[in-house]
Amino acid sequence: MKVASVVGARPNFIKMGPVHKSLSSSGIEHLIVHTGQHYDYEMSDIFFNDFELPKPNIYLGVGSGSSCFQIGEIVKRLEEKLTQRQVDLVLVYGDTNSTLAGAICANKCGIKLGHIEAGLRSYDSTMPEENNRILTDHLSDYLFAPTLNAVNNLKKERIRGKVYCTGDLSVEIIDKTKLISKKSEILDILGLKSRSYLLLTMHRAENTGTKDYFIQLLKTFESLVDNTIVFPIHPRTKKMFKTFGLLDRLLKCSNVKMLLPVGYIDFIALLQNALKVVTDSGGIQKEAYLLKIPCITMRKNTEWVETIKGQWNVLTGVDSKKIVDAVRRPSPNSKYSKSVFGSGRTSQVINELISSIIQ
Ligand code: UD1
Ligand code: UDP
Fold first, then answer.
1. N or C terminus of the chain with fewer C-beta within 10 Å?
2. H or E stretch covering 213
3. What's the 355 CA to ligand 2 centre distance in angstroms?
4. Is 112 in the same domain as 220?
5. Which residues are CB-neighbours of 236 under 8 A, at least 6 positions away?
6. Distance CA 228, CA 253 (A)
7. Same domain, 109 and 238
8. What is the per-residue pLDDT across 27-71, written as a single tens digit (0 to 9) for each?
9. Residue 91 sits in a domain of what CATH number?
10. How far is the centre of ligand 2, averaged over its atoms, from the C-alpha of 317 (Å)?
11. Nearest residue CA, atom 8 of ligand 2?
12. Ligand nearest to the CA of 38
């Protein structure tokens, strides 16, 4: 049996980590196809190192560009590779352009398709990822849904493929990484003490296209002058600070420690020692919840609805006043249920399902 994972962006590599280990250890031939959507060392190779993944079997080298360019080029370049290698099943992860492109190509080549992290919905069609998820789910033969909410979302859409509730890969990823992260030196290198800083990330297309949102972010930094803010900056966000002529103002915020994006082990070390995290990431909302770190999400909605119960995750949009209020609010002490994301056996469950589906 030959399975190919099509991955291309930071969160895709992270989710593939335990799946690769599980499939390979049970004798399934697992090909890694890297589309090249992310290519900087800090956005790509660092995750292959942190998760001890082998080099990709196939590198498509697509790079940056519009969504149409990325999706079109990936589909075009992938077709030949998938058919040449006689792949039985294509796996795609999450909601990136690489995910959708992998799904379209598998479907058009007549290869069975499995979607890991199926069924998530923010019900916000202005998010490119929401459209990627819906289209990928409707092309999939096998839908590996992380939560019961995700299963219900798929049922409401009368999905064609077979739906399985597998739990979320983050549980096992976090359980393992939080131990490894104890050896990370990132806090010492940055001169940080545990619970003495806020961690911040922002990169969503809908948040980085508007100058006003960058001004809101700068106002937030300026209002929180007594808080150290650790900001591993995504290349898209850095580029847009420059485009809007606001990089100098950012560099003047002496409470902000701006870093290149960091690897996963260092990121989890930073997250589990933070006072709170401020983010617009999908994955980080869930990781913060699993680590019981209060999260402030600079979005108006979330697909990870489980995290907003009990105020562990608060939605503020990119509104300086709301973010600052949320930072200053006492941390929640309310009901919390990690089990909504499953028992931490998701890669094994997916492996068993794949083995039984494809004989
Ligand atoms: C993509 C995903 C998003 C995911 C994010 C993870 C889509 C539609 N979006 O967004 O869901 O949350 O990855 O980080 O697929 N760039 C570099 N170096 C790199 C990669 C990107 O400089 O290695 C810069 C380029 O200027 C590029 C921009 O970042 O144009 C955006 O990259 P892209 O992959 O298109 O989207 P992301 O914002 O990373
Ligand atoms: N992450 C990382 N280093 C960073 C920022 C994020 O390893 O500097 C990890 C983070 O822990 C999470 C994933 O990258 O698992 C999320 O990626 P991102 O926010 O880019 O994408 P999203 O989850 O929003 O699709």
1. C
2. helix 211-223
3. 30
4. no
5. 203, 205, 208
6. 10
7. no
8. 999 999 999 999 999 999 999 999 999 999 999 999 999 999 999
9. 3.40.50.2000
10. 18
11. 261
12. 1
